[in-house]
Design brief:
The chain is α+β, with helices and mostly antiparallel strands. It is 26% helix and 28% strand. Strand 4 and strand 5 form a beta hairpin. It starts with 24 loop residues before the first helix and ends in a 10-residue tail after the last helix.
Length: 176
């Protein structure tokens, strides 16, 4: 089901998400919500907290992956990073913080392992955009937003925009 994107100021975005067993019936629903919502928004990746589920799940849209064989939803349940190497410093944005793009330093290459909906653990190696997306989405699972990784001066310059966005939060929920 398509869900509304939770925006900056929503409490769920600052929580450390809980692991979820793939055989828990909630896992199937969370994954389907993420894929449906991601497809409607035509974005690259989405984490469960961004649609209001505080579970350790994110998906990456395969359309952005060059390998034609990988054009099916990439689902990461209970992801764990195994290795980071290199550096990249590129602009990032986020559906939960619309219209703000800032350069963020991330690892250039990553290795992570995660479960799929059958519970099978797989290891993924990635670089560049895939590595950046996996790190960005995994940060959501730890309650970290990309603006937490920019310089204090840049964050201070964004203060007014962020305060205005957060001011639309009602009872801890902000869907804009």
């Amino acid at each position: 089901m398509i869900q509304k994107i939770r925006l900056f100021g929503d409490e769920v975005l600052r929580k450390v998400a809980e692991p979820l067993s793939p055989d828990d019936p909630k896992a199937q629903q969370v994954v389907q919500d993420l894929i449906d919502t991601l497809n409607v928004n035509e974005e690259f990746a989405l984490a469960a907290p961004q649609v209001g589920h505080s579970f350790r799940i994110f998906v990456i849209n395969p359309i952005w992956i060059e390998d034609e064989q990988k054009r099916k939803p990439m689902i990461f349940i209970n992801p764990e990073f195994v290795e980071f190497s290199g550096e990249q410093f590129m602009p990032e944005g986020c559906l939960s913080i619309p219209e703000i793009f800032e350069k963020v330093k991330r690892a250039q290459h990553i290795v992570l392992r995660a479960q799929d909906l059958s519970g099978k653990w797989s290891t993924y190696k990635g670089q560049d955009l895939f590595a950046r997306a996996a790190q960005h989405e995994n940060d959501h699972l730890d309650g970290v937003l990309f603006i937490d990784k920019i310089s204090p001066i840049r964050r201070k310059l964004l203060y007014g925009k962020l305060k205005k966005l957060a001011s639309t939060t009602k009872n801890g929920v902000n869907v804009g």
